[in-house]
Design a protein that fits this description.
By secondary structure, the protein is of the alpha/beta class. The protein has 7 helices and 9 strands. The strands form 2 sheets. It has a 7-stranded mixed beta sheet with strand order 5-4-3-6-7-9-8, sandwiched between helices. It has a two-stranded antiparallel ribbon with strand order 1-2. A hairpin with a 2-residue loop joins strand 1 and strand 2. Helix 2 packs parallel to helix 3. The longest helix is centred in the first third of the chain and has 17 residues.
Length: 247
């Protein structure tokens, strides 16, 4: 009956797989999409490269580099990104934030089910109005990752009925240019990132050029697009942005 009412199958089942994890799902919390698994892969690749980078270690000819990355996820939803990163990076710590209490509660529930709760802090936080000092629980962060609301407002009416009827539209609607929350994240990033820290974003295929132009108009942020990556449909979907401001 629920499927006849166009309820997404993830909500009907009450759980869904994302990478190697099975996560609880509840309306209206945003359902993670398959392409977002590639966003996680990009962050993992970056962290693995950092952990292999040479380090000066006096008295040791072959130093062992142990990386303890601190990662901030903005807009955690069900916790899919944050918990996947914790699962693959056993020395990492993650701060996961969302402006919706339902998402915060679901991420917390999934973290406990997966026994990852000890390395994650989950906060109800609005990137548009919250104090950035709240996010420095473990000091400056290595990486910010987000699948923010990026649908152009004019495109919202064309989304599938099951999305419009059941999912949190605030997790999808990015305003007139789809960049309302993206700009907030990028304005926040230099305040909380370590020098040479990274921002990874999932975006609309029209956004890479728009983001580059916007960052060029904001040299005070000391951010630049390092790479654009395509999704499995060949569309530019993911941005890697780097911080160049010395703290």
């Amino acid at each position: 009956m629920k499927r006849l009412q166009r309820m997404p199958v993830q909500y009907v089942l009450g759980e869904w797989d994302f990478r190697e994890l099975t996560l609880k799902m509840r309306p209206p919390v945003f359902i993670p999409r398959p392409e977002t698994e590639d966003l996680v892969s990009l962050v993992l690749e970056e962290e693995f490269q950092r952990s292999r980078s040479p380090a000066v270690n006096v008295g040791h000819q072959c130093p062992t580099v142990v990386s303890h990355p601190v990662i901030l996820e903005i807009g955690c939803g069900s916790g899919a990104i944050a918990l996947s990163l914790l699962n693959k990076l056993p020395t990492s710590r993650v701060i996961a934030v969302d402006k919706e209490e339902a998402a915060v509660n679901l991420t917390r529930e999934n973290a406990q089910r997966l026994q990852l709760q000890d390395r994650i802090r989950i906060l109800c936080y609005n990137v548009s109005s919250g104090s950035w000092e709240q996010l420095l629980l473990w000091g400056p962060v290595d990486t910010v990752v987000s699948n923010p609301p990026y649908v152009f407002h004019g495109d919202m009416a064309h989304l599938a009925e099951e999305i419009l009827s059941y999912e949190d539209l605030g997790a999808l609607d990015g305003g007139n240019d789809g960049m309302r929350v993206i700009k907030k994240i990028l304005a926040l990033a230099p305040r909380i990132l370590k020098d040479n820290g990274s921002v990874f974003l999932e975006v609309d295929p029209r956004h890479p050029e728009m983001v580059e132009n916007w960052l060029q108009s904001r040299p005070d942020l000391s951010l630049s697009v390092s790479a654009t990556h395509k999704d499995f449909f060949g569309k530019p979907r993911f941005l890697h942005i780097q911080n160049h401001k010395a703290r």
